[in-house]
């Protein structure tokens, strides 16, 4: 695993990246000791001073724990949990657990929403709110929210700094978020998201998209929130009486013979039985 001396990156960055990959891939699991400086020096073919620089970078990133006279250990990752199926936002969920979630507002302006948001909000006159959420100074998520402009007159960005949007909607506008749909998918960070979330381009993210209605069943918000997959865990409560919806996305139907329709129906039924056990 020698370093590539034709690579333009400094040697210590190459060593740090190789070890970082092993840590994030759990080839070096949390709590495991790293090889000694001498072993790493021989493995990568670099001076021990280069190894020390690499270790310092990993410690700064919170990936390893260094102690005088003791082996360097892989740090336990800090994980923050949110309940996906709750209408309450991240701010209120964290506050309920005594965690100090900070919010930085990147922008609030009138903007035409994307098609999915426009269809739900039933208006093209909306406000686009962009925020970053942090815990202990570490960025956890980037959130983009569209609100129907007519329902939140006079809304200002400074009202949302280190504050809950849902709480403000309830207290100031009398609009209480009650229910909605949520969708989670895994995506890769593009350059813009990587810069905002302080990760590398292509790193995995958990994208939570959702729509929320108020106590009057009227559209209140449509949002997309990108979470760092190495810091945020989505929890889902399951109960015995909960109803599970199984959706099977299929191509747009075309005219087919009756026999083909029957075969397709049987195949879908078999799949449904398999999913439901």
UniProtKB/TrEMBL annotation:
SMART domains for the chain: HTH_GNTR (SM00345), UTRA (SM00866)
InterPro entries for this protein: Bact_HTH_transcr_reg, Chorismate_lyase_/UTRA_dom_sf, Tscrpt_reg_HTH_GntR, UTRA, WH-like_DNA-bd_sf, WH_DNA-bd_sf
Gene3D superfamilies the UniProt entry points to: Chorismate lyase-like (3.40.1410.10), Winged helix-like DNA-binding domain superfamily/Winged helix DNA-binding domain (1.10.10.10)
Keyword Transcription regulation: yes
Domain of life: Bacteria
Gene Ontology biological process terms from the UniProt entry: negative regulation of DNA-templated transcription
Keywords attached to this entry: DNA-binding, Transcription, Transcription regulation
Any one GO molecular function term: DNA binding
Record keyword RNA-binding present: no
Residue ranges constituting the HTH gntR-type domain according to the UniProt record: 9-77
Protein name stated in the entry: GntR family transcriptional regulator
């Amino acid at each position: 695993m020698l370093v590539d001396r034709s690579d333009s990156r400094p040697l210590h960055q190459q060593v740090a990246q190789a070890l970082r990959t092993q840590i994030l891939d759990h080839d070096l699991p949390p709590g495991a000791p790293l090889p000694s400086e001498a072993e790493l020096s021989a493995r990568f073919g670099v001076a021990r001073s280069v190894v020390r620089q690499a270790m310092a970078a990993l410690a700064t990133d919170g990936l390893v724990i260094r102690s005088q006279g003791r082996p360097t250990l892989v740090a336990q990752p800090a994980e923050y949990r949110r309940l996906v199926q709750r209408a309450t936002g991240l701010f209120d969920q964290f506050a309920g657990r005594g965690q100090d979630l900070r919010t930085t507002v990147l922008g609030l302006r009138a903007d035409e929403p994307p098609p999915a948001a426009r269809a739900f909000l039933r208006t093209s006159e909306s406000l686009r709110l962009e925020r970053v959420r942090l815990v202990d100074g570490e960025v956890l998520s980037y959130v983009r929210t569209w609100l129907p402009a007519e329902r939140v007159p006079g809304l200002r960005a400074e009202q949302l700094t280190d504050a809950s949007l849902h709480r403000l909607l309830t207290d100031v506008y009398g609009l209480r978020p009650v229910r909605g749909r949520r969708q989670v998918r895994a995506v890769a960070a593009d350059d813009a998201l990587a810069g905002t979330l302080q990760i590398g381009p292509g790193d995995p993210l958990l994208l939570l998209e959702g729509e929320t209605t108020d106590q009057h069943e009227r559209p209140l918000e449509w949002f997309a929130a990108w979470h760092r997959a190495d810091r945020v865990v989505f929890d889902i409560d399951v109960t015995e009486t909960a109803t599970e919806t199984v959706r099977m996305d299929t191509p747009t139907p075309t005219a087919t013979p009756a026999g083909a329709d029957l075969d397709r129906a049987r195949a879908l039924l078999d799949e449904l039985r398999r999913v439901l056990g």
